[in-house]
Specification:
With 335 residues, the chain is of the alpha/beta class. The chain contains eleven helices and ten strands. It has two domains: 38-130 and 259-328, 3-Layer(aba) Sandwich (D-Maltodextrin-Binding Protein, domain 2); 131-258, D-Maltodextrin-Binding Protein, domain 2 (3-Layer(aba) Sandwich), CATH 3.40.190.10. The N and C termini lie far apart (66 Å).
Amino acid sequence: MTATHRRQFLQYASLLAGAPLLATQQAWAADAYPTKPLSLVVPYPAGGASDTAARIFGESIGKSVKQQVVVENYGGGTGLIGANKVLSAPADGYTFFHGSTNEVFLAPMLNPSARYTPKDFSLVAPISEAHIVLLVRNGLQVDSLDKLIALAKQSSAKPLTYATVGIDSIYHLMGEALATRVGASLLHVPYKGGAPALQGVAGGEVDLAILPYQTSFDAMQAQRRLKVLTSFSKELPTPLAHIPLITQSKLVPDFAYTISGGYFVKQGCPAERVTVLRNAIGAALLSPDIRARLEAEGRTVAQPTDSQAAANQTFAQYLQRVGELINTVGRKPVA
C-alpha cells in the first residue's frame, strides 16, 4: 500500500467511525423541535372570530412547546392568501394554519385560481365548531328571521344586501341557499374578513351579515348598532342561550349550519413534529380556562385528538359535509 493509499484509507476509516456520532447528532436535532418561534397563520384580518381563537390557542401552544407562537394575519381571497402562505412555506412544522371549512375545503373546490386542493393540507387536530349567526343593521325594521324573509321577498326590485368574509365562503353559500329556498333576492357583498364585514353591517353599509358569533356582537346590539336575529344552530352553549335557535323559525327550522375549525400543516410535515403540535393543541383543549374563553366566544370545543388516523377520519368527514353543501346550492366543484 502506497503512502497515498494509506492516507486515504485512514481518512475513510475516520469518516466511518464518526458516522454514528453524526447520525446521533442529526437525530438530536430532529428531536429538539421546535428550536425557534412558530408562525400561526390566520387567513383573515385581526379582530375577527378566527383571530381571537388563534390568539387564545397560540399563547397556550407556545407555553407547551417552549417557543413563541407568532400569529400572522393574511386577509383577502376568502382565505386563499393565508392558505397559500402556509403551502409556500417548508413542510417542517414551523408554519401551521388556523383553518376552517372555508379556506381548506370550499375555496379550492370552488375557485379555480386557488392553486391547491384540500389534500395539500394535513389536519393536525380539530379545535371547535363555531356557531353562525345572522345580524341586521339597526335601522332594518325586523326582529326575527321569518320577518326578515318576508321583507326580502317584498324587496325583489331592490334586494337586501348581505355581508360575508368572502366569495364561496360557507356564509356566502348559506345566503344563496336561503334565498333560493324561500324565493327571495339577496345581494352578496364580500369583505376581506369578519371584522370588516361586521363594521359593514354596524355602519349601515349592508342590510345584514352572516358571520360566526363573537361576544362583541352583544355589546354592539346593546349600543343599538345592530341586531342579532338568529343563530343557524339547533342548540347552543350556555353563554349563547339568549340567541334564538334556527328551530324557532316557522319557515326554515331545519336550515342549520355550523363551521368546523382546526389546525393544519402542509402535507409532508414530519410525523414526529405533527405529534408535538397535536399534543400542545390537546393540552390547550383540556384547559378549563381556555375552554371557558372559547365557549364564551360561541364555540363548541372539541376533545383532543389522539392520533393521525383519528385526524384523517375527521378530515374525511369535513370533506363529505362540504361536498353536500356544494350540491345543495347547485354548484359543481372545479376539476
